[in-house]
Design brief:
The protein has helices at about 5-20, 30-45, 105-110, 130-135; strands at about 50, 60, 65-70, 75-80, 85-95, 100-105, 125-130. Helix content is about 30%, strand content about 25%. Strand 5 and strand 6 (about 100-105) form a beta hairpin. The protein is α+β, with helices and mostly antiparallel strands and about 150 residues long. The protein has a single domain, classed as Trna Endonuclease, Chain: A, domain 1, CATH 3.40.1350. The strands form two sheets. Strands 1-2-3-5-6 form a five-stranded mixed sheet. The chain has a two-stranded antiparallel ribbon with strand order 4-7.
């Protein structure tokens, strides 16, 4: 099943549940959204995901750059408290299944948004999309994880 179609179907299910059980929101978040984002990024960027869960990073580029991928359907992304990922890609998935790249570059640049914050119980800091977009402007092209080149058939 294509991710864009799956997101649309999931949101239809959420809407149906919300209309029948108005005490709950049935939001798509957490692990499901994260997994969807990782697949979208692997499909479009020059990197391979690790199998299963790995500590601190989700995948690696052919030249060995380790990448952490974070995904949201809301207005902020998370960033780890206990480490700075080598590279960080943050995306926002929209209700039609399409997504926007919010940040793509060295984790040290994204870390600037939270460097003065105290640790949290969840081990994650929340960063607004607007703050990450602003930091993304500081990333040079050679410091981004490149998108896959589309082969012409």
């Amino acid at each position: 099943m294509e991710i864009q179609k799956a997101v649309k179907e999931l949101l239809k299910i959420v809407e149906a549940l919300q209309s029948q059980y108005d005490k709950k929101k049935f939001t798509l978040d957490g692990r499901l959204v994260g997994d969807l984002g990782e697949i979208l990024v692997e499909q479009d960027y020059d990197l391979d995901l690790y199998s299963g869960l790995a500590k601190h990073h989700d995948g690696e580029t052919p030249d060995g750059r380790k990448v952490q991928i974070k995904t949201t359907m809301k207005n902020s992304l998370t960033f780890p408290v206990d480490h700075i990922p080598h590279y960080y890609i943050g995306i926002k998935i929209h209700s039609d299944g399409a997504y926007d790249e919010i940040f793509n570059g060295p984790g040290s640049i994204a870390w600037e948004a939270i460097k003065n914050r105290k640790p949290t119980k969840t081990n994650l800091h929340s960063i607004t999309l607007s703050a990450l977009k602003k930091l993304n402007e500081k990333v040079s092209d050679q410091d981004r994880i490149p998108k896959k080149t589309k082969s012409k058939s």
